[in-house]
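Appendix C. Worked example: Penicillin-binding protein 2
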Amino acid sequence: MFRNPFQKLDHEEMRRSSDVLKKPKDMNKVINQRVRIGGLVILIIFGCISFRLVNLQYRENDEYKVKLDNYASRKQTSSTPRGVMYDANGKIIANTIQSMNITYYPNEDVSNDEEWELAIQFTKQFGKSKYEPTDDEWKKLYLILSVDSSGKKDQGNHLLTKNELQQALKGEISSEKADKLKMKRIKQADIDDLPQDYREAYPTWLLMQSVSENESKTILSNVSDEQVSYLSEHQNEFRGFEVTSGWKREYPYDKTLKDVLGNIGTIQSQDRLHYQALGYPLNDQVGTSGLEQEYEALLSGTRNVKEIKYNKDGEATFNEVKAGKKGYDLQLNINIELQKSIDAILTEVLQNAKSNQYRKYYKNAFVVLMNPQDGKVYAMSGINTDDAGNLYPYASGTYLNANTPGSIVKGATVFMGLNEGAITKNTVFNDAPMYFQGGTKKASYRNYGPLDEIGALQKSSNVYMFNIAIKLGGGTYTPYGPLNLNLSTFDLMRRYYSMFGLGIKTGVDVPQEETGYVGLSRQAGLLLDFAIGQLDTYTPMQLAQYASTVANGGKRVKPRIVSGAYEVNDKSSLVYENKAEVLSVLNDKNNNLERSRLGFRTCVSTGWCGGVTDLATPYEVSAKTGTAENPFYENGTLIQASHASLIGFAPYENPNLAFACVAPNSSYSDNIQSNSCSNDIMPRVLKEFYKYYPDLAKSAN
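Step 2, the predicted output written as structure tokens:
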């Protein structure tokens, strides 16, 4: 029931005076007054609406037209060429060159049969697509083409029993379950009996079916000029297909550093949500490994945007509405010519090892060179052997392959002993075999007699490090007595080693790096092994960071493969700088690290570091060798193999080079071979380095 909105006002009016109550009410006057007020309100409302309509029609017309077009139209985005990668001297190591592709976008209202005809015709003219269908996809083709005994398509229903077919028709079993039963019963011979035209065209047809609403599908990449010309001349016969300009990667240095540069591929299932959130179409090409993946945001550029419309013949046309921009160029700190030279050295060493029966398990070798002050990686070389015995570059092994390091960790062990008060400077231990309860013997390679910490590093004394470990563990050595140690010392030692970069991520700019194996067993004897690098495993990149930390006086610097990113063909326009970063600094109030540095220097200058001794004077090289036992079983037989390693830096004061070399399983049996890193590899590598960086050699002199 409608309520009088003026009722309260009427009552108030009547209460003002008793005379009002005595006068007759002029109802016409009251009604007219109220109609005028209501009309005025309605007029104001309609005025507001009219003003808004006029505003929309004239002032905001263009804006809303754009919004309507954006909502109603289809847009296609496409990737632009990726940025180029350069080495430290501006040489192209990953180039982007133009290629011509054939893409497909369906015409309006095209039927499935018409697409099959197109796929068959296209395949006959241009060849099979490189896409390889899965086993399940081949079985689905059989179901698509399947016919019954009368020649009618039956979607593979003849593969079901009568009872199963009846259950499927009644909905007693789901269509998914029925399809699984069918596919399980399809044999390879059934697929082989399908018409050849359909089998050959099937990969192309699958790609045509995978076209999204807003994205063409590339059917053939990097097509020839002849194929481009033919399609252009016979466009009416291949409706929906067109030639588009694309790009591809080219590597002027072939496989050199290729695994570090990375690969490009389609978006993987586990990464779909990430790239969708960034606006990538799911069939886009992205970096899937290495620097291509790590620097995807810089290399990929911005995308082209085209509007999709259909002409009167139902053919899709594409009009560019937003031009894309090529990705930024990357410059690396790596010298590609030096990288090639080191690859060649490692390849030659491994090739020669094949003729040495005591090096038969020597299958790979690694070298990392970096600047200990700012982390620039000069080179990161690795060579591996495949199952057929062929050698190939494996530079990514410098951060993915971990091995027990051996005695090169002794520099960190000495620092830890000094810092924790287990020893003091010039503390002397007698290097002689140590015997424990049960007859267990622990010794150095030789009996070196009395040594201080400098001599222990110079001659690589195991016994000196065993004494440090025993002191750290709160124990006392008693000949043939029990070894009682505080096993929490494992944690203490790992904490100290991590300060040098051992056992933790180095921070090198790649999407994935290994940190090595951490020994889980905690026995007192293993604590002694840990002190000489015979327990946990480390990568060559971690060892290079360790060498850098020793070299520069205690700063753990992040290794940097990439220097920065620039505008296309414009080295003056820096858009991203991979700045030098100190990750941590040793707590070294008493300058204890200098004792480790001096031990490294003494090892080289007195002839205890193999072939690098010859470089002691011209380049002031300081280094430490390492050998680590690596027993393993082969066909039930125990193989006593060992790794060789070497770390170091140069020159001694203000060093500008730190290096690490690892030669896994480079010796086996009791006939121990010379350290391949210190004798065969690093003397040649260091000479090559100073050939490419003569100014650094001069500063060493």
